[in-house]
Amino acid sequence: INPLAEISNERRITSLGPGGLNRDTAQFEVRDVHATHYGRICPIETPEGQNIGLILNFATYTKVNKYGLLQTPYYKVNKGVVDYEDVRYLTAAEEIGFNIAQSTARVDKNNKIIDEKLTVRQNYNYVVAFSKDVDYIEVASKQMTSIAAGAIPFLENDDANRALMGANMQRQAVPLITTEAPFVATGIEADIAKYSSANISAETAGVVEYVDGQKIKIRKENDVVTTYKLRIFQRSNQGTVISQKPIVKVGQRVEKGDLLVDGPSFKDGELALGKNVLVAFTTYHGYNYEDAVILNERLVKDDVFTSIHIEEQIIQFRTSRAGDDKLTADIPNVSKYAIRNLDEHGIVRIGSEVVPGDVLVGRTSPKGDENPSQEEKLLSAILQQRPMNAKDTSLKVKNGHNGTVINIEILSRENGDVLEDDIDKIVKVFIAQKRKIKVGDKMSGRHGNKGVVSIVLPEEDMPYLEDGTPVDVMLNPQGVPSRMNIGQILELHLGMAAKKLNCKYVTPVFDGVKKEEIADALQEAGIDPSGKQYLIDPITGRKFDKPVSIGVMYMLKLNHMVDDKMHARSVGPYSLITQQPLGGKSQNGGQR
User: Fold this and answer.
1) Which of the listed residues 272, 286, 289, 410 has the most CB atoms within 10 Å of its CB?
2) CB neighbour list of residue 254: distance below 8 Å, 6 or more residues apart
3) Does the domain spanning 70-139 belong to CATH 2.30.150.10?
4) pTM
5) What CATH number matches the domain at 308-435, 3.40.1400.10, 2.40.40.20, 3.30.1490.100, 2.40.50.150?
6) What CA–CA distance (Å, rounded) separates 440 from 295?
7) d(Cα 570, Cα 289) in Å, to the nearest integer?
8) 494-508 burial, b if ≥16 CB within 10 A, otherwise e?
9) In Å, how far are 127, 280, 534 from 472, measured between CA atoms?
10) What is the rounded average pLDDT for all residues in the chain?
11) Please, where in the chain does CATH 2.40.270.10 lie?
12) SS3 524
């Protein structure tokens, strides 16, 4: 779906499968977090449901040695002095017997540990030791978390269950039309960009010679020109768009490994899954009951949460003894309107706006010797002609897949494509649709604070700040205390300061911005240190009774969209055996 989902999928490990565990009989102990996971397997990122604790993710710096054991890196410490040149990768067994200090231990400019006594890990227990007895020190504070969990700011202030949801939901964020990097980040975003296949980095150093939307040319030292082709409007396996745009200019010098483009969900070489929006924690006429989300219509008008989705439809042309399938624009018993977009060969034109029921590819198949129906017998008797022996088996637009045809791919034996024995030709049609955010779409922050849009209010009906700015999103404050994901509140306040001061804060996990520093930032921005402000009710023009927590939060639009889920039918297909309606949207069924 997005680059984080891809990179997270590449770092996934499982206890299931041949020679592994069975998910039905796996006990609680097997699924639980173990002390040896530290720095090797993320204790946070794992699926909810029956696979919990059986499917896991590598931590940020994990390495697999030649025996298939997981290692994690440490810096060597000699007599209280850290040697940053000497990185040792240790397995869980090799750690035993050593004193390992945390990465947040304070070190002076001579690399000497400042505190005489500090907490160390020894044989997987925490003890207090003298700094001269420390053997190793961790390399970074994000060493124990996975990449997705490491992208959650103020992770240390969130309950583990909600952090798990936050890590999993970032992988479901849909790439938006315009991207925006978060005001409050953790610093891992640029690393994700570097390792993502959705981006292109320079293979060698050189000078940029030519840039446009299709390609980038770079002249190397030896005057050889390398051309990098950009991917434009390609479909990912989940129907989201992969599109790259250049971030280098002509004449610019690039070094080996520098990023040349922004892929989907990237902005200036950083991961950018969502948008910074002005959020108020307040109830409003019951519309945000049960985690529902109230949105400002501005987010719809300005395409803030708009994404493009591409649907691929495929049709095959088979050869058989009864006769071959034909590609044709002359289809029996189809209205002129349904075939209005076809060219003379019977394939839809690129750029056509199509709606459900339209023919995309005209195909007729031989009828065979089956018995003609009573109507056909009567018609052929009246019209004195033998019944047509071709039936319409065209590819039509599925329900809910209306949009614009953006691409057509034809595979055929004539062009030398390798196809299965009885297949003569395959036609693929790609239909793109632009989806604005609407009621029923799922949204979330980075702290497991998910909800469904319940109403989109016009700008003039949104409560506004004392300077007249209407808020973008209203969330229910009752969704915070019992869930204990306080990180969202800290992000809210720090985001407000970042917006006012026009800067960006980087707060790494477990080593982030302190509470006092947030208060200082708010004061510097001229906001009350409590982070609360009075909102004005647009209906009465009076202030609300109590001040409300208002700030800027990074919010994501998730892949669960109402357009994919909403379904209705009047009459439809029935099961042959039980004569009951089929089930589910895919079969145009009744529910269940």
Assistant:
1) 272
2) 202, 205, 206, 207, 208, 218, 248, 260
3) yes
4) 0.88
5) 2.40.50.150
6) 12
7) 32
8) bbbbbeeeeeebebb
9) 48, 8, 16
10) 88
11) 275-306+439-557
12) helix
DSSP type of residue 387: P
Cα 170 to Cα 181: distance, rounded to the nearest angstrom? 14
Q: Where do you find CATH 2.40.50.150 in the chain?
A: 308-435
| CATH code, residues 275-306+439-557 | 2.40.270.10
How many degrees, rounded to 5, is the angle at CA 49 between CA 287 and CA 25?
160
Sign of CA dihedral 379, 383, 388, 392: negative
Find how far residue 135's CA is from the centre of its chain: 40
Pairing of strands 275-281, 473-475: parallel
Give the residue range(s) of CATH 2.40.50.100 domains in the chain. 170-271
Domain(s) of CATH 2.30.150.10: residues in the chain: 70-139
Compute the average pLDDT of residues 424-451.
Answer: 91
Q: Where on the phi/psi map is residue 85: left (φ > 0), alpha (ψ -120 to 50), or beta?
A: alpha
> How, if at all, do strands 403-412 and 423-435 pair?
antiparallel
CA distance linking residue 194 with residue 262, whole number of Å: 11
Show the tokens assigned to 12: 């996934």
What does DSSP assign to residue 372? P
CB atoms within 10 A of CB 348: 25
| CA contacts within 13 A on the Cβ side of 503 | 9
Express each pLDDT in 475-487 by its tens digit.
999 989 999 999 9
What sign does the dihedral 356-362-367-368 (CA atoms) show? negative
Q: Half-sphere exposure of 273 toward its Cβ, with a 13 Å CA cutoff?
A: 32
Contact (CB, 8 A) for 513 and 503: no
Name residue, tokens 């921005």.
Answer: 525
Residues 6+ apart with CB under 8 A from 16: 22, 23, 51, 54, 55
Contact call for residues 293 and 473 (beta carbons, < 8 A): yes
Buried residues in 96-128 as b, exposed as e (16+ CB within 10 A):
eebbbbbbebebeeeeebeeeebebbbeeeeee
Reported as a single tens digit per residue, the pLDDT across 325-367 is 888 888 888 888 888 888 888 899 999 999 988 999 988 888 7
